Each structure stands twice: as structure tokens, then as C-alpha cells.
Amino acid sequence: MRIGVPREIKDHEYRVGITPAGVKALVNARHKVYIEKGAGIGSSISDSTFKFAGANIIKSAKEVYSVADMIMKVKEPLPEEYPLLRENQILYTFLHLASNRKLTQALINRKVIAIGYETIQIKNGTLPLLTPMSEIAGKMSIQIGASYLQKDKGGRGILLGGVPGVKPGTIVILGGGVSGINAAKIAAGLGAGVIILDINLERLAYLDDIFQGRIITLMSNSENIENFVVNADLLVGAVLIPGARAPVLVKKELVSRMKPGSVIVDISVDQGGCIETCKPTTHSNPIFTVKDVIHYCVTNIPAAVSRTSTFALTNTTLPYALKIANNGFLKAVTSDEALGRGINVFKGRITHPAVAESFGMKYTPPKELI
């Protein structure tokens, strides 16, 4: 199979869809890898390093898309990339379609085979390809929030860990999944007061056990959200429903009651966001203010630590890429249920129920099209 890796063009997206080790593994399995010139520079991977691993370096994205049977990316295609996609080409990347109708329609129209990293799901509910980026985004949400709480950045002037004799900052985390738990690890390590809200009692019990009383766990309901969000110095949105739009848990009215200079970091913004006042931002222009509350809503947070993110991502995407390349798309998705759940668009149809529900469109099970 011919695998193409274009350079990412999203704002300040420094990650690349594969590492040299990933290239070598595919080449050793007798596949060909085509990488756009300069694609790895943002992750400190040179063209020569990719070439030494066995990749073919070509000049433009157009050439990559034209030659490849499967495109491996990091982020969803942007509008200028839509025309490069062709019928029955496999697009293997983060998609987050539930919050992007324009992209969904483009993939339908182009009749590509769209596999979303974020919806590949094993039987126990784990999302193995989303996990490493969620870990990174969770950890970064606290250091980002801590920075914007500084007075020189417009914040309240709060040191999250406090000092002896002074109360530490309060962090409220909505969602106790992968992002939430990693945010809590960093927050608790700083010495902040940490409150996690989640709807799953088993998850709350697990969090309570591993943190051994260093954080407060609460059932996520409207009363608890209202009571604790208004007192947060830093509010982290870390809610995830696989493939679906994030539910809005914090309304604009509640944000207006938060303390001036407090900070919101909504990790779930790439799935629409769980805070009503949030809207997607970029690394170039990461924040905006609503009712004197700073909002950080960058949709590709892990891009800021691109080398770590690229290597962590390839560790999880490569085994499935090899399965697709070695066996072909149909055999790969029929023999691996987790990979089959990753199919979002196929033969011009939406093949993930949560995506279809988000837009009120028809859902077609992949098995009906295979």
C-alpha cells in the first residue's frame, strides 16, 4: 500500500502523522511511504531522517494526496485540502466530525473512507488513539491555566499552589476521564485545591482511591456544577462522549457569576465544548474574555509540545495503520471490531451513530456497506 503523510497546515500545528520508526515499520512490511517535504520540521524530524528510514520525500501536498492509497495525518483536513481527497482513498486521522458539518459533508461528497482516531474503541470503552493526546491536553490545561491566572496575563494574580499562610487556588475539572485525571495529577502536584465532577460513580470511587484524599470528587449534576464553578479560579472542561458533540454543562449565566480574572480551559472544544461561552481558538490567538473571565479554547493543545505528541501518537496509530496496509481496508475493519468502530464516513454515508445524531442525518452501519 502507498501511505501518504502531508504537512499539517492547521494554525501552529507542529505535529506530523508518523515518526521515522513508523516509516521503517511500514517499509519493512513492503509498503511505500510518501512524506511531504518539511512535514516533520515542527517535531524536530528532518527530511533526511525520514529518507534514511525509507520514506520518499516529495515536494507538495497535492503530490502526496495524488499518489497515496491511505493518508495518515494528525488533524482534520481544512477546506483547502478537501479537493485533494478522492473517492475510496483512506483518510486516517483525528476527525472530530460531530462539531464540523462542513467537513462531514465534504467527506461524504468526496466518498472517502474516513477513519477517525478518536472513535477507534476497544470493548472496554477505551479509546486507545485518543488517550495519549488526552493525557497531554489534560496535563497542559493546568500549566496553561496557571499562566493565564498571572496578573500580567490578565488573570486574578493567583498562584495555584499557594504558599504557607495563603490559600491555594481552586481548580474545578468537569469530567474524570483521561484528560480530567491527568489535569488532576498536575493540579494536585502543584498543591491546588482540586474538585472533579463526573456522572460515573465507579469512576469517582476510582479517582478518590488513587488520589487518597488529595482531591474532592463530586457527582456531576446541575446543583454541584453551579455551586462549585462560581468559586473556581480555574475551570477545566474535560467532558467526552465518543464521536459525539460534548454536552453543554456550564451556561453563559453561570460563567457571568465566576470571579473576574478566573480562567476557563475547555479541552473538549474540538468536540463543540462543554461550556456555552466557549468557541474554538488557535495558538496564534488563543484567548478571549467573556464577563471578565479568560477563555482558552485552542482545538489542538498538544501541538505546542509537538515532538512528545508526535511520538506518543505514532505509538498508538501505527499498529492499526499496519493492519490496514497489510490486510487491506475491508479485511482489516471486519477482523478488528475496534478499528471498525473508527469508520465515520464510507461510500458517501455516515457510518458512526454519534456523528449522524449530531446533525440529524441518516446513520448507516458499516456492515451494510461492506
Corresponding CATH architecture of the largest domain: 3-Layer(aba) Sandwich
Helix content: 25-40%
Shape, per Cα inertia axes: globular
Radius of gyration: 21 Å
What structural class do the secondary elements suggest? alpha/beta
Tally of structural domains: 2
CATH superfamily of the largest domain: NAD(P)-binding Rossmann-like Domain
What does this 3D model show about the protein?
Substrate binds at residues 15, 75. Keywords: NAD, Nucleotide-binding, Oxidoreductase. The protein is built from 13 helices and 15 strands. The longest helix has 22 residues, at 306-327. Helix 1 (20-28) packs parallel to helix 2. The protein is an alpha/beta fold. It has an eight-stranded mixed sheet with strand order 3-2-1-4-5-6-14-15, sandwiched between helices. The chain has a seven-stranded mixed sheet with strand order 9-8-7-10-11-13-12, with helices on both faces. It folds into two domains: 2-120 and 306-368, NAD(P)-binding Rossmann-like Domain (Rossmann fold, 3-Layer(aba) Sandwich); 131-299, 3-Layer(aba) Sandwich (Rossmann fold), CATH 3.40.50.
Concise account of the structure shown:
The chain contains 13 helices and 15 strands. It has about 375 residues and is of the alpha/beta class. InterPro entries: Ala_DH, AlaDH/PNT_N, AlaDH/PNT_NAD(H)-bd, NAD(P)-bd_dom_sf.
